[in-house]
Amino acid sequence: MSFRSKPMARATAVAAVWIGVGALAAGCAHHDAAVPAKLGTVHFKVECNAAAQREFDLAMAYYHSFAWEQIKAPLDRAAQADPTCGMVHWARALALLDNPFVWPGNVSAQKLAQGPIFLQAARQAGLKSQRERDYVEALAQFFRDPDTRDHRTRAKALEEGLSGVAQRSPEDTEAAILHALVMSANFDPTDKQYSNQLRAAAILEPIFKEQPQHPGVAHYLIHSYDYPAIAHKGLDAARRYDKIAADSAHALHMPSHIYTRVGAWRESISTNTASARSDSGRTFNTLHAYDYMAYAHLQLGQDAQARKVMSDAFAVANKADAFGSAFAYAAIPARVAIERGAWQDAAALPLTPERSGYAWHKYPQAEAVNAFARGLGAVATNNAAAVQTELTRLQQLSDAAGALKLAYWVEQIAIQSEVVRGWAEVAAGRRDEGIERLRKAAGREDATEKHVVTPGPILPAREVLAGALLDSGKAADALREYEAVLKKEPNRLRATAGAARAAEGSGDAAKARLYHSRVLEQIDGSDNPRPEAANARRFLGRG
After folding, report:
1. Which is it for the CA torsion 237, 242, 245, 248, positive or negative?
2. Domain interval for residue 325
3. Same domain, residue pair 64 and 134
4. Within-domain flag for 521
5. 52, 91: one domain
6. 140 conformational bin, left if phi > 0, alpha if psi -120 to 50, beta if neither
7. What is the mean pLDDT of residues 101-125?
8. How far is CA 223 from the centre of its chain?
9. Largest CA-CA distance found in the chain, in angstroms, rounded
10. Taking a C-beta distance cutoff of 8 angstroms, is the pair 37, 31 a contact?
11. Is the same domain home to 49 and 176?
12. Which among 188, 190, 204, 532 is placed 20 to 30 Å from 386, CA to CA?
């Protein structure tokens, strides 16, 4: 293992983490052993010997790009190099928390039980400064009394504990970075002022100027800005993170969170292609990247490429049993059907991998995507019995999510149910009732935020509302709703095409020309021209 020093403005010495891949075991075996892996620049000072310090820095470089499996080997080596390095065990406990933006579903009872054991090992091995003891006590807050304190309370206690570490050790930028991470992850989904996220970004932005190669700073800025109204603020971090940690599959993927928010589909495809290739099916990151990639291809009308992504995703079935994998398995085929308006395909979507080969019962919120897509397909193909079947299934999945205390997903499944129910009412001739139901569902969806696991809704509730209004002869109302969708989901192809048709129907020739032109620009060179393109060419007189 080798390190290259990089001088920084801070008094803290910072080591650039470049790892000889031969030491990384199978997790990074896709690299040539003679070529170092690039993970960025991280120095997390610990009161341990030099060899342990180097390994600890390496482990934290992996941590900052959410490479959980790769953290273990350098921590083991650090413990061997210095058995009195208690912070090694602290880092093991920290890694148990997994991705904070997926809390609480990814922190099992087993992890909650294991955390205090690691922290006690840290105390016993040796904590040689008050700062190290502060880190241990801050993290202990998350694991304390999980049977009597809910997740939100414990997560907030961790946030406050890390804030205290940062305040007592102002020279320690790692404390500030971790505090910002947890603060951002502890956001309120109903807060449209993005208070936590912007406070976290305000901590991170100055550090990014001083430590421009720090992977965690770039990473957590992307997460903090991953919201429609503020996504443009994250473009700088998005354009830099995949270069800072070029050998991290997650770092290669993360820029697409911002690219998706601003409708930069080609950039999203590029970074997710690199991420999937780097991960090569070893973890859920491959499938997560495939979901974002498929969505982007579909927004460009590149249907054959999206189907190829779906085929590639199914080829890694059963190799990564995680929520991110389960969501991608359900979402990709749903997107491929719905974005193309292939409603018969949507109505018959199988749950892949099949129940016998995948632990779907663990992820009712992912299986709900399949039920939602099938329900929409049933409405579009006038199969009332199938609509009811899928509504019943959605209720069962909501109950299962509730039993797992997944409150966010209970609400999302409820919105999905209302969208299916509302569209079914419109289709059955109860237009006013159905449109009102869809309007309320759209309001509920707008009041929350998308989960980090997904590039966006399988089908936005407001887009369904807009379509129902257009079909009901209310073109001007439909145009307003389509434009509201595009404000939240820029360059979304179905919404752009819908806005074009609604503008035509309302007699707004200028807007019709604008949106039809955007459709043609967006799907220029697509492999399978959509009906939307034919409509645009007809209106614009392009044959």
Report:
1. positive
2. 321-459
3. no
4. no
5. no
6. alpha
7. 95
8. 8
9. 78
10. yes
11. no
12. 532
Give the per-residue pLDDT at 352: 84
Sequence-ordered list of residues with C-beta below 8 angstroms from that of 442, at least 6 positions apart, any chain: 460, 461, 462, 464, 465, 481
Taking residue 111's Cβ as centre, other Cβ atoms within 10 Å add up to 16
281-300: average pLDDT? 93
CA dihedral 165, 104, 217, 67 (to 10 degrees): 110
d(CA 86, CA 121): 7
What pLDDT sits at residue 524? Answer: 82
Burial of 439 (0-12, 13-18, 19+ CB in 10 A): middle
Domain shared by 61 and 128, yes or no: no
Averaged pLDDT for residues 125-134: 97
Note the pLDDT of residue 526: 73
Per-residue pLDDT of 66-86, as tens digits, reads 998 899 999 999 999 999 999
Residue that is last in its domain, among 186, 220, 246: 186
Residues 23 and 118 in one domain: no
Helix (H, G, I), strand (E, B) or coil at 37: strand
Residue 63, pLDDT above cutoff 90:
yes
DSSP state string for 365-403: HHHHHHHHHHHHHHHHTT-HHHHHHHHHHHHHHHHHHHH
User: Is there a single domain that holds both residue 16 and residue 140?
Assistant: no
Question: Does residue 19 lie within any of the structural domains?
Answer: yes
pTM (2 d.p.)? 0.91
The string of pLDDT tens digits covering residues 348-405 is 999 988 766 778 888 999 999 999 999 999 999 999 999 999 999 999 999 999 999 8
Q: Is pLDDT above 80 for 289?
A: yes
* pLDDT tier, 5 (very low <50, low <70, confident <90, very high otherwise): very low
- Please check whether residues 326 and 442 belong to one and the same domain: yes
SS3 call for 4: strand
Torsion angle, CA of 257/262/266/271, rounded to 10 degrees? -20
Please say whether the beta carbons of 171 and 147 come within 8 A. Answer: no
CA–CA dist 251, 211 (Å, integer): 17
Residue 19, pLDDT > 80, answer: no
The one-letter code for the residue type at 258 is I
The answer to whether residues 430 and 384 belong to one domain is yes
Q: Are 365 and 401 in contact (CB under 8 A)?
A: yes
CA angle 160, 163, 168 (to 5 degrees): 130
| Residue 39, SS3 per DSSP | strand
* Domains contained in the chain, number: 3
Residue 437 is assigned to a structural domain of this protein: yes
Distance between CA atoms of residues 308 and 315, nearest Å? 11
| Beta-strand pair 2-5/15-20 | antiparallel
Q: Which residues pair with 19 in a beta bridge?
A: 37
Residue 57 has pLDDT above 90, yes or no: yes
Give the helix ranges, DSSP H, for 428-474. Answer: 431-447, 461-471
pLDDT classification of 280: cutoffs 50, 70, 90:
confident
